[in-house]
Write a structure and sequence with these properties.
The model has no long low-confidence stretch (mean pLDDT 90). 30% of the residues lie in helices and 23% in strands. It has an eight-stranded mixed beta sheet. It has a four-stranded antiparallel beta sheet with strand order 10-11-12-14. The protein has helices at 9-25, 31-39, 45-51, 66-75, 110-127, 148-156, 169-178, 188-201, 224-234, 347-355, 388-403, and strands at residues 90-95, 105-109, 135-137, 161-163, 183-186, 212-215, 237-244, 248-252, 261-263, 268-273, 287-293, 304-310, 325-326, 332-333, 338-340, 343-345, 360-370, 373-382, 408-411, 427-429. It has 430 residues and is an alpha/beta fold.
């Protein structure tokens, strides 16, 4: 029997249709979705389920965004009304990271959590994990879901899993080395931080056991400069992964398509729409990723606006899978776009340019609104022993050449800029 991620296109569609109808049939006790669908004219869930035999009809339903869920939790504290089961059946509580607003609380039933672990099994197989791999999770667990599910998913698949909570970065590197961990799961930011610490503490990352880094939580894994820096220092392949607390793990790179990501279409239905009209964009054009979860059954979402910008890669993948493939991974976020001297740019694009300059250890970007436009201030921290003036001039030139506008760039002393264990906070608005 084929793995779920290896199904042909026709079977993937059949699975999606069946699971979508099952999801809708279970919304009778979900006050959030009963109300939202009724407002759109769908009070009869059985009739709606019949219409959804044609998956294209999904596009006729209303979209939903994070602010809708936040408002619902404000009206119905503490967990909101997006609950399809009685409260006593929920066993997991997580929170969103809160990087773009107030955190959401998210509950899962035991069945939904089991489905998430199965999704992680798909992630690992597509990424190229093998049974002999050992996993290191070099961060502290908390209410942010982070790699909680990845840890449990890897353990359920029979892998030795090493938790790094409560340890210093140096101790985590020692743990990886002593236990011969071959796979590291972390944010791109922390992978870069561990490179710094390895240099300070004398760890030989390239000669170490790690062969694979699965990164998530921010767009750095698909940013060429970030990716190349991590791969060069670790001597290991970087695999980018995408998911959200409210959606679960849903996309990952395969070995045959670096820089792109496959969507796990047995777990969700993905639409790519124009942000202004919510209409599908032509294949290959950039649009917002909209997700309907299929197995997050305790707290489902229909047509959820992620805010992430993506584009479909129409070319067949070398891995042979029929899964939808996102060209370049996550390209940016619509709500993060900056207007610098009349130019629309995304933070991920600015990071790619700065990381492409040799000698940058860390950086911070401050934007200030002056009149109708944002002005850019970049603070760069050079690597030890690197001429700061050369780094500054390199960043100035790279920004001007790429974006056709200037930026104020200053060097700061080594160690002055903050380091991050989870998501980086390098972009500051004043």
């Amino acid at each position: 029997m084929a793995f779920p991620e290896d199904r042909p296109r026709t079977e993937l569609s059949e699975v999606q249709q069946r699971r979508l109808q099952n999801l809708v049939s279970g919304l009778g006790g979900n006050q959030f979705w009963k109300t939202r669908l009724a407002e759109a004219g769908w009070r009869d869930l059985a009739q709606l389920g019949k219409r959804l035999e044609d998956l294209s009809f999904l596009a006729e339903l209303p979209t939903c965004g994070k602010q809708d869920l936040v408002a619902d939790q404000d009206r119905n504290p503490p967990y909101g009304s997006n609950l399809s089961e009685p409260l006593e059946r929920y066993t997991r509580l997580h929170r969103t990271s809160g990087t773009t607003g107030r955190p959401l609380r998210w509950l899962d039933t035991a069945a939904a959590w089991s489905n998430i672990l199965e999704a992680w099994a798909q992630i690992f197989r597509v990424a190229g994990v093998v049974q002999t791999d050992r996993f290191a999770f070099p961060f502290s667990f908390g209410p942010f879901i982070g790699f909680w599910a990845a840890f449990e998913g890897a353990a359920a698949a029979g892998h030795l899993c090493l938790p790094g909570g409560g340890l210093s970065s140096a101790a985590r590197l020692r743990m990886i080395e002593d236990n011969h961990a071959t796979v590291v799961c972390c944010t791109p930011t922390y992978a870069l931080r561990l490179i710094e610490v390895a240099g300070e503490e004398g760890f030989d990352l390239r000669g170490g056991p790690v062969r694979l880094l699965i990164v998530a939580g921010e767009p750095g894994g698909s940013v060429p400069g970030v990716r190349e820096s991590i791969q060069a220092a670790w001597g290991a392949r970087v695999v980018d992964h995408w998911g959200m607390t409210e959606l679960g793990p849903l996309a990952v790179e395969c070995e045959s398509s670096p820089g792109g990501m496959h969507v796990l279409e047995t777990e969700c239905i993905a639409e790519i729409v124009a942000q202004e009209t919510f209409k599908p964009v032509p294949v290959g054009e950039q649009g917002e990723l909209v997700i309907t979860t299929l197995r997050r059954i305790g707290s489902p979402v229909l047509r959820y606006r992620t805010g992430d910008l993506v584009a479909v890669d129409p070319e067949p993948c070398g891995c042979g899978r029929a899964l939808l493939r996102l060209k370049g991974g996550i390209l940016g976020r619509g709500d993060d776009m900056l207007t610098i001297r009349g130019n629309n740019v995304f933070p991920s694009s600015i990071e790619a340019v700065i990381r492409g300059v040799s000698g940058v250890a860390e950086f911070r970007v401050v934007t200030r609104r002056e009149g109708a436009m944002d002005q850019l201030q970049v603070d760069v921290e050079p690597l030890q022993g690197v001429d700061a003036s050369e780094v500054v001039s390199g960043v100035v030139a790279a920004i001007r050449q790429t974006f056709n506008f200037g930026a104020a760039v200053d060097a700061v002393a080594p160690g002055e800029l903050p380091r991050f264990e989870m998501k980086g906070r390098r972009f500051v608005r004043e």
